[in-house]
Write a structure and sequence with these properties.
alpha+beta, 4-stranded antiparallel β-sheet, 4 strands, disordered C terminus, binds flavin mononucleotide
Length: 254
């Protein structure tokens, strides 16, 4: 596959098929924990996925990210231990009725996946004053999350699963991966080939939480303004597309 990173003009058009491929990727992306295979990941796939991450938007074109690729089993074992410690703390934070369900959930694939990636944010990459970060100081962190999402979607298109592990103390990541104090670990990701992708989020299948209806989350011209009769056509379309997203059409139709 050839990647065209530079075109003189913006004459790129998207066909119906291209659009379908994009939505297919978005709606069939999953957070993968339990389906990783130990097979090595082809290097060309990793390179493309990282390149996709590196083409995320970033405030002031800051590109504040780094990608720490973790393949060493010894290092992954230390990370896994840090996860286990945090996960025990996490379990005790839930009310008693929910603790046993929480403990039954698989929430990481650190050792089963052949590679982990820690995505970090260097907040001082462009000096103290950054175009676009003058008033909302956290936008460099958001930029890094955009890179994570690009990586996640590109991986899905490459047939690779990704799982985000956030149940870990940031200090543990600093310590184990030698990340300097002023660099923020944003995401710890597990990546690899998978036996299969589940059709729905694991947390939904486990009965932890359902997807919210999009129409309830959309307001018009101000917070909590939902005068749907004034916006009937758009509201109808949002409703009409709700089954389209989580549903069978994507899996069966595409
Ligand atoms: C910021 C962030 C942190 C997450 N942390 C974890 C985690 O620690 N363990 C886990 O199993 N899933 C984690 N997830 C995955 C979510 O549980 C998952 O995205 C959600 O349940 C929806 O499922 P889907 O990604 O398969 O659509 C995280 C996702 C995000 C965006």
């Amino acid at each position: 596959m050839k990647i065209h990173s530079q075109t003189a003009t913006q004459e790129v058009e998207f066909s119906e098929k291209d659009r379908e491929s994009l939505y297919k990727t978005i709606f069939n992306r999953r957070d993968v924990r339990g389906q990783f295979l130990p097979d090595p990941i082809p290097h060309d796939k990793i390179a493309r996925v990282l390149q996709a991450a590196h083409h995320a938007p970033s405030v002031g074109f800051m590109q504040p990210w780094n990608f720490v690729l973790v393949q060493s089993e010894a290092v992954r074992k230390r990370i896994h231990r840090a996860f286990m410690d945090a996960n025990e703390e996490a379990a005790r934070m839930f009310e008693e009725g929910k603790q046993s369900t929480y403990r039954s959930l698989k929430l990481e694939g650190i050792l089963e996946s052949p590679m982990n990636i820690c995505v970090t944010c260097d907040r001082s990459r462009c000096g103290p004053v950054v175009l676009g970060r003058t008033h909302i100081k956290t936008v460099d962190l958001y930029s890094t999350v955009c890179a994570v999402q690009n990586l996640w979607l590109a991986a899905r298109a490459e047939g690779l699963g990704v799982g985000w592990v956030s149940i870990i103390r940031q200090e543990a990541l600093h310590d184990i991966l030698n990340i300097p104090e002023d660099i923020v670990p944003i995401a710890y990701l597990c990546i690899g080939k998978v036996s299969h992708f589940n059709a729905a989020p694991d947390l939904q299948t486990a009965g932890w939480r359902e997807r919210l209806p999009l129409e309830d989350l959309v307001y018009f011209d101000g917070w909590q303004q939902q005068e749907r009769d004034q916006h009937q056509s758009l509201t109808d379309q949002i409703r009409a597309h709700s089954g389209w997203v989580d549903g069978h059409r994507l899996v069966d139709g595409w």
